[in-house]
Amino acid sequence: MVAVGVLAGLSVLSLLTYGYLSWDSLGLGPGETEATRTGLGAGAPSSQPHIIFILADDQGFRDVGYHGSEIRTPTLDKLAAEGVKLENYYVQPMCTPSRSQFITGKYQIHTGLQHSIIRPTQPNCLPLDNVTLPQKLKEVGYSTHMVGKWHLGFYRRECMPTQRGFDTFFGSLLGSGDYYTHFKCDSPGICGYDLYENDTAAWDHDNGIYSTQMYTQKVQQILASHNPRKPIFLYIAYQAVHSPLQAPGKYFEHYRSINNINRRRYAAMLACLDEAINNVTLALKKYGYYENSIIIYSSDNGGQPMAGGSNWPLRGSKGTYWEGGIRAVGFVHSPLLRNKGSVCKELVHITDWFPTLITLAEGQIDEDIQLDGYDIWETISEGRRSPRVDILHNIDPIYTKAKNGSWAAGYGIWNTAIQSAIRVNHWKLLTGNPGYSDWVPPQAFSNVGPNRWHNERVSWSAGKTVWLFNITADPYERVDLSARYPDVVKQLLRRLSQFNKTAVPVRYPPKDPRSNPKLNGGVWGPWFKEDEKKKKSDKSKGANKQKKNKNKKKAN
């Protein structure tokens, strides 16, 4: 009865989130939107497109209907089929790296975030001297809003989303947390609340609403209150389908036949995410944004098989530089596309969105900003060749070194103990320890019948620290060509060496005990106070002066 009472009290806006309403039931006529009916669309329309960037979390390459998944994703399938599917699209293998590269247009080696992710207790964030995408869009009149997962650091107030170009922020600062309570424990006893509205903890929203649905409601509210004649940038970074594996009960209905419990929960989470994106699309149409909008969908990295994700038939998983960790589900859907219903097989990387979207927004890219991304709009919209011919997947100098790596194995050009990966045209080179390298077929998620997973395990050849693949001919990385084409290996090692000369020092500080939420009202949030640091330094300077004066008197 309580649930019925709650549902009865929901507004039309909230009901949209749960997918219960159609446009007919809202009383909108053919071609009519809420904006035209209410007069919100008054004024001259903007030539600048509305930009909606949707980032899923840990979605596996296979985990979309049009890649053959058993998980139903009708919204994603329809949007992709009517838009442009990106089938040679790359991201980074983990959360922070992909997000930093999207928002700056720069490789990790150029921001200092080339190692791992930003941990909750680290005094670290996206360096403040990096110009961000929302900052550039604000310069040309965009209203900028972020809903969802930040994960680019928060130890100082200056690191918060609202200080990095977003007019509003509603979401989480950390990399993961409970979908209902929004609490996160980083280690035993180090726990706190992680839901923010702008710069303060959003205790008022602590109503036990599943985050995918809560974030969608927030997006609908933003669209309902904004004037569609003014350009808007909406960055929607859903928490799903990252662990912990949680989903509302009704989304399990179609997946009770999946025996593997993690895969079943993951399927339910993805079904809820697909419905949420449908409701975002409906809101864009309802409030008059859709016809002048560009919707970009991307996963932030590959799936994690141990947490239900599938990258089959690609090799490896999240956290690795095999294709399963970095080749992502991605598409662009927009009435502004010229070649709708097409597939783009040109090379595209997550850094490319920065210059592409700024150019579409009629913005300017400063000459002194050294970008690693390219404007690829004509590649996507018109089917032209990509300006991109290579991708530095990463160079991580502090990742665990490969025991057998050496300068000799790298022909004196590169130390193959270092974890690195690069793509140049058709070729991909990996060195060091690329990470978990198995192929995980769909049967691995079944508790019934023969388990083929063990047949797909890799037996490491002793001392191996260099791999070369022709990704165009062998996207599943089954045939290592490093011994057959040593000259190609040398060329790519030289390219790695060139990139490495431009790298900035790694930012990966030890944890700071002041980050404990117990010291911050039970909330994860900024703890580093610049004023305190100044006071301390001023005190120490003062103390040193006094000592010097005393010593002078003694000497006299």
What portion of residues belong to β-strands?
A: 5-15%
Instruction: Compute the average pLDDT.
Output: 88
Radius of gyration from the alpha-carbon trace, in angstroms? 25 Å
Structural class: alpha/beta
CATH topology of the largest domain: Alkaline Phosphatase, subunit A
The total strand number stands at 18
CATH classification class of the largest domain: Alpha Beta
Q: What number of domains?
A: 2
Low-pLDDT residue spans: 1-43, 533-539, 550-556
Full CATH superfamily name of the largest domain: Alkaline Phosphatase, subunit A
Number of helices: 13
Proportion in helices: 25-40%
Q: Can you list the strand order of the major beta sheet?
A: 9-8-5-4-10-1-11-12-2-13
Distance between the termini: 88 Å
Domain Sulfatase N-terminal: 49-361
Family: Belongs to the sulfatase family.
Protein name: ARSJ Arylsulfatase
GO molecular function, one term: metal ion binding
Structure explained in plain terms:
- This protein is of the alpha/beta class.
- It folds into 2 domains: 50-389, Alkaline Phosphatase, subunit A, CATH 3.40.720; 395-443 and 455-502, Arylsulfatase, C-terminal domain, CATH 3.30.1120.
- 26% of the residues lie in helices and 15% in strands.
- It contains 13 helices and 18 strands.
- The chain has helices at residues 2-8, 12-17, 34-38, 74-82, 95-104, 133-139, 211-225, 261-286, 323-326, 353-360, 377-382, 486-500, 530-555, and strands at residues 50-56, 84-86, 89-90, 143-149, 168-172, 183-187, 190-193, 196-197, 200-201, 232-237, 293-299, 330-333, 342-344, 348-349, 390-396, 419-424, 427-431, 466-470.
- Strands 9-8-5-4-10-1-11-12-2-13 form a 10-stranded mixed beta sheet, with helices on both faces. A 4-stranded antiparallel beta sheet has the order 15-16-17-18, with helices on one face. Strands 3-14 form a two-stranded parallel sheet.
- The longest helix is centred in the middle third of the chain and has 26 residues, at 261-286.
